[in-house]
Amino acid sequence: MKRALIIVPFVLVVLLAVALVAPGFMDWNQYKGQAQQQVKTYTGLDLELAGDIGFTILPSPRFMAEGVTIKAPEGSKSETLVAFERLDVNVDLMPLLSQKLSIKYITLVKPHVNLEMLETGKLNAMTPELEALTGGEQQDQSQSAKTAPPAISLDKIVIDDGQFSYYDHKTKAETLIRNINADLMARTLFGPYQANGSLFYEGNAADFDLQAEKFDAKAQQLNPKLKLTLQPGDIELNYAGTLNFKETVGGQGALSLNIPNVAKALEQNKISGINGLNVPLKVKGLLTADIQKADYRDFELSLGENAFTGSFGALVDPLKYALELKTQKTANIAELLPDLAIFKKGTFNLKVEGDGQTTKIHEGIIKLDDHEFSLSGAYTPQTKSGRPLAVVDFSTAVLDIDTLSKKMPASKEQSGDLESSLRTASLPFDMDLNLNAKKLKYQGQNLENIGVKAKFRDNAVSVSGLTLKNFAKSDIVASGGIDNIKALSGIALNLSVDTRDVQALAKALSVDASSLPKDMGKASIKAKLTGSADAMDMTANIAALNGELITQGKVKTPLQTPSLSGMTVQLKHKNMAEAMQKFSGAAEQDPNFKKPMDVYAKISQDGQTYTLAGLKGDLAGFTVQGDAKVDLSATKPYLSGDLKFGKVVLASSVTTGNTAQKSTAERWSKDTIDTAGLHAINADINLSASSITYGPWPLEAPRMKLALKDGVMEITEMQAGLFEGSIAMSSTVKSANQSRQPIHIAAKSSLTDVSVARLVKALAGSQMIDASGKVSTELDITTSGTSPAALVYDLGGQGTVTGGDIVLNGVDVTRFAEALSDESKPGDSLLGLWKGTTKGGRTAFDTLDGNYVIREGVITIQKLDLDGPEANIATMGTVNLPKWTLSTKHKITVKPQGDVPADIPPFEMAFSGPLDNPAQTFGQGVMQDYLNRKINRKFEKLLTDKLGLPGEEKKKPAKGLLQEVLPSSGEEQEITPKELTPQDILQQVLDPAPEPAAPKPQPEPVPAPTEPPPQDVESIVKEVLQPEPQPEPEAPLPQEEPPAAQQEAPAEEPQAQPPQQQEQQPEEIKPEDVVEDVLKGLLQ
User: Fold this and answer.
1) Which residues does residue 718 pair with via DSSP β-bridges, in sequence order?
2) CA 553, CA 456: separation in Å to the nearest integer?
3) Are 678 and 722 in contact (CB under 8 A)?
4) For the segment 1045-1064, what is each residue's pLDDT rounded down to a tens digit?
5) Cα(319)–Cα(321) distance, rounded to whole angstroms?
6) pTM to 2 decimals?
7) Where are the domains of the chain?
């Protein structure tokens, strides 16, 4: 017995030792089938053990398995529900003796858990067996006792590099969490639970800390507390509430979000381009959610010191959601977003709703300072094109861009050209944009009813309507699009501009319009462009100033350096003078160009050089054709070309009409000459024309070269036919690029073999003389001034004139000389004789030779001699251009020949007064004395013949008979009392005294005027027959050139005393017969 007591305990110890040690030497792989069967029994899931399994008891029970896989139930997408490379379970031994399982730790290496939400609304892991274990099904007491598992506690579960996935069969949405490393603890299989670790989700690392009270199996509810910290950014998410697994998974609890620094979080998550937001973000609210819906009501959001409130709700099937977010008080935008510092304060109220297809914004109101915007639209994440679509409708009552631009920070220059920027431009979504503003303030302009409609697609954009009303007093409408943005092809643009003020529009667009008229007024532009970035076809029509500009052709590389190719340009205007007046600023329209104009040309471009080929058209009735080039590569445009005009007729700018109608001050303008045009461009142009008629100057086939460089204009090789001869000229005009500075002109010209008559008429403005012949001149002048008047007053220079075979028609000097012969009658006056010789006949001259100088606008004729076989005319005098007057004297010398006596003295003619209507005077002094002598001799001869007095051969009077009556000018009168005068003889014949009477005393001689006026025959006879003493007259002033009116007026008849009546004595000779015979002889 005693021995038995010793042996039995020993055997028990040995058996116990064997029981504890033996499992370590057993091959547990042979029990895989039993293990799989047990799992199947309790869970209803199929277990696969691909690797080795093992079990030991000492020092504590431990179970190990490798290559463990639990297959997913039928209907799952994934083949496995749970899989891991190795499972290691360590259990306390002693609790097993009381049917309790206390697991010290479980280590799962690379576990993969794939949960799925089936279309039935249940998780694929919830088999009927598991539902029974969790109380999902009601079973009878015996069955529950039979299948109830032992009590289980988990001290620690270690997960190494695990993975979790969740897939929803209805929404096809999948969630994948990788790199799970966690330590889990559970006092029992139903909690309470505690877990912490890390995982990787959607490119972000997360640290989590989970605590949960014991799972309420009856209520199927768990009360977790979860803290999730996302990296980068230290984004912290907290949830404290319930999770309900009864009927469906759901929960309710407080959900909060905390970001210490929003800017840093955005930067760490590679979201750039947002400056500011260096403030914390906090969100907290109540979340109620299940697998069908979620409701996050009355959440509070704080961004720094700015507070917002809102609500969010969502339905899963069908998917619908709604978000409302608004500011609690005015937000400090300048603090949050310095880049948007143009606005300091703001409020908003946004309402968003959507479904599985589209998100919509309803009546979003945004107030930023004094601006209020209305925002609405929609966002569709998936369309037929496979891209998201955003529809944005943005409108505002007033948008003050001027005020906003002043607040906007200086923009940084963007690198790259426009074409490259367009080719790379893209949006991650398609967009339909509709912008509207009732009033818009831009660059001081108040625009109205602004609108634009645009569509942006994957690689295309179209604008159906861009409208700007009252932009810089203009209405603008544009439309078009790009079919292929990357290739920049299929480009179309339609533009319509109606402006009421071109200058205002140009200023608003920062376009230099200084060359355009300041009062240009209205304009209309219609343009259409189609093509690609390589070349575009352009058609444009510009109507302005009652004219029209039409262009059509190609524009190469329009987005880089545009160049024109095959471009046609047509310029039309109904009144060219009106267009010239607008551009020149002249006070009046040039009458030469008051006709329509129509010019056409083809333009091509090479770099910055534009070629105008086939230029032709009609300029106010003047045809023009030729070619030209414009080079814009230098600081000034350079114009070159050849232009040929047809017949050009221009009225002279100098009025040659009656001076009574236009004063000298009006003849020469004192307006400052604008020389800006001479500095605007440089040029080399060859000009020619069929003819140019400028006032009285008809130029035949003129041609010239015009060069302009830096304000200096040179005209060279100017040649033309003129007045049956030719003209050649060159000139230089120099100007300063400053206002009110004088211009300097130097010119040389020569006329060769031109018609003298036409030349005189052109110079004087009237046909002063009727002449024929050829003359040649040389002229060299200089002048300077700021106005036309100043140029005339400063005119200086010199010139010569030569000619030959000149004939003065209507002036017969020989006939005049013959009229002065002995056949002249006492009734002839010198002016009467001259006028008689200017009614026909001609005088020829062999040569013309002269020279003149010009000083201060006054032409001084130093010499101008006409010399011929019959006469010589020497001219001297002045032509005053500033005053438009002349004063010339023409000394005429008659040469003796044939019946022309040799003793005819020279005489003068004079012209004075307005240049285009001078007065003519005739000098008679010496010539009248010569004529009186001729008449004296003829009278003496007649009296001698009629009265039978001794002739010249019988007596020799000391003086001529009429010398006492008609003394010569400037000669002293001689009296010879011993000689009988014709007066005494006639007195004795007509009235003989019956008785000798004492001789009458002779009257005192009256001093004769220097140039006595001409007397008719009756006056001469009366003076001869009845001389009467006259009182001593006052000495008259000598007149070198008495007016023609005085020369032609008859002298006042002297009141002769009637002879005393004598008794009639019968005589053989009757006195009346004698007188009658004498008068007849004088008048014959």
Assistant:
1) 729
2) 29
3) no
4) 334 334 444 444 444 444 44
5) 7
6) 0.52
7) 1-167, 190-304, 382-405+423-507+524-533, 926-993+1010-1025+1069-1084
